[in-house]
Task: structure prediction
Amino acid sequence: MSARRSLVWLGLTPEPEQELPAAVAALRSPAVGRPPSALVAAERHRVERLVLRGTQRGWLRYLREVTDLVVDAAGSRSTDPGAALLAGQVVLDHHRMLIGLPGAGYERTAPQRRDLERALACLRSRPAPALTGRTEPRSTV
Result:
């Protein structure tokens, strides 16, 4: 590792490391519902590799991909909003904390913060999914 390589950005990663793999796997999964465990494991491996061997630039590139998935989900009615809401809020919180770090990360992520805020507002304004099946209690008589 180079003495010039800054590791300050690693202090912001615990929540994204924990929350993003399953949420991103769900956003990447072609089927609505719980993503396949192999997809979650692959996403978790990717995040681990970025954090252990990557750079802040690579990490921010990954979060840009997640932002794009969230924005796409906000424009799609076929996507489960739960995973998009979680991923979007985690990335938005991360990007807001960049203001406390040296460098231009905060300024570079300004367009992503704007896009995430819009996408999250859209996702939150969606009506709750309609219940399927019987909604009235069955008579026991």
Observations:
- Residues 11-124 form one domain.
- The mean pLDDT is 85.
- Residues 72 and 129 are 19 Å apart (CA to CA).
